[in-house]
Amino acid sequence: MTAKRLFNEAEVRAAIGDIARGIYQRVPPPRSGWAIVGIQRRGVPLAQRLARALEELGAPALPVGSLDITFYRDDMGETALHPVVHETELSFDLSGKILFLVDDVLYTGRTIRSALNELMDFGRPSRIYLVALVDRGHRELPIQADFVGKTVPTQKEERVDIHLTEIDGDDGVWLSPRAVKTA
Fold first, then answer.
1. Spatial separation of the C-alpha atoms in residues 162 and 52, rounded to whole Å
2. Which pTM was predicted?
């Protein structure tokens, strides 16, 4: 059985717009401002898109950063000897800001736990909101997204893949019948 496309480009764009409207309506900006941090890899372009969507709604220009959690993961012993490391770029002070932490798929919660640990090494935001394009369930930790584009019921052995133009050449959300363990 092949992968099934769940959402196309227009639906991905609509989900990001829905998230932005939800944020804009529910979260008043503090004096110290908002900031957005995307988790490498696909969380970064999603964070950039979310910042643009918020600015289109009237928010001021928002600082956007990227976070690579590779060395904060709790499964480092199970991963490859030569992990692929991407850039962490936080060129702004996190202290006192309302921070939106963006990831593509929320699954067990372990990626988010790692991201929170790393963020605290860079400062102390006044509040962190979790944003996920897709929440597929199956949490192993008590972590929940504050803003979700789409909730997709899945089986634990299935895999949700996000494609983004900036990385993959197209936008879409795919469901594969079997999870493929990657290094």
1. 20
2. 0.91
